[in-house]
Amino acid sequence: MTPSSAIPAKSTEYPSEPTYESVPITSQRSLRQISVFAIGAACFLASTALTRRAIYRRQLRIPPKFFDPNTNPHEHFSPLNDALQAVNLATMNCVSVGIMVVGGTLWTFDISGLKEAQYALRGRLGYESIYQTGQDNSELSRESLEGTILRKRSEKHDDKGSGAPRL
After folding, report:
1. How far is CA 110 from CA 6, 29, 133, in A?
2. Chain segment 32-44, per-residue pLDDT in tens
3. How far is Cα 53 from Cα 57, in angstroms, rounded to an integer?
4. What integer pLDDT is reported at residue 99 of this predicted model?
5. What three-state secondary structure class fits 136?
6. What is the distance between the alpha carbons of residues 162 and 152, in angstroms, rounded to a whole number?
7. Could you tell me the CA-to-CA distances from 52 to 58, 90, 104, 130, 144 in Å, in that order?
8. Which positions ≥6 away from 139 have C-beta within 8 Å?
9. Number of other CB atoms surrounding residue 111 within 10 Å
10. CA atoms in the 13 A half-sphere facing the CB of 83
11. Alpha carbon distance 94, 96 (integer Å)
12. CB-based contact 112:106 (threshold 8 Å)
């Protein structure tokens, strides 16, 4: 008695899964793409540190005591400087977050440059099928406009000749 005669051997071959060719994370291309995100993250950390420092310095100002007169403040106060500082800090924070978002999105969608971004966007929007290079857009719109006018005129002429209302 041999074990091979007692139990027939079944072949367990699974269909091969589709292989997706992707760029490894440590490749030059991927590192260049992720560097935009890293620059945005570094700018965000720097702008956060500057914002925290500005808030801390603002809180360190000597608050006036309760019964002190406010007609002659003890320090120079400029609302314009405070407003400009707030606008600058908010702009730095928003731009750095924007750079991080753009860098992360480009890395996620594996886009490495402006030409690739244009190609991907035009492919998604069907740019080539909308704007066919062989035909002039003005001629195409003129033909469709003329056809529509002629069709409406013929329908109008048919309605007048029949005398009965169309349902």
Report:
1. 54, 9, 28
2. 888 889 999 999 9
3. 6
4. 93
5. coil
6. 16
7. 10, 12, 25, 51, 62
8. none
9. 17
10. 3
11. 5
12. yes
Q: Which of 86, 66, 85, 62 is nearest to 75 (CA)?
A: 62
- Give the tens place of pLDDT for each residue, 115-162: 888 888 888 887 777 666 555 555 656 667 777 888 888 887 777 665
pTM confidence score: 0.54
Angle, in degrees to the nearest 10, between helices 28-60 and 79-108: 160
Query: Which amino acid makes up residue 133?
Result: T
In this structure, which amino acid lies at residue 20? Answer: Y
Q: Cα separations (Å) of 112 from 38, 40, 98, 100?
A: 15, 16, 17, 15
In this structure, are residues 40 and 100 in contact, taking their beta carbons and an 8 Å threshold? Answer: yes
Q: How far apart are CA 100 and CA 46, in angstroms?
A: 13
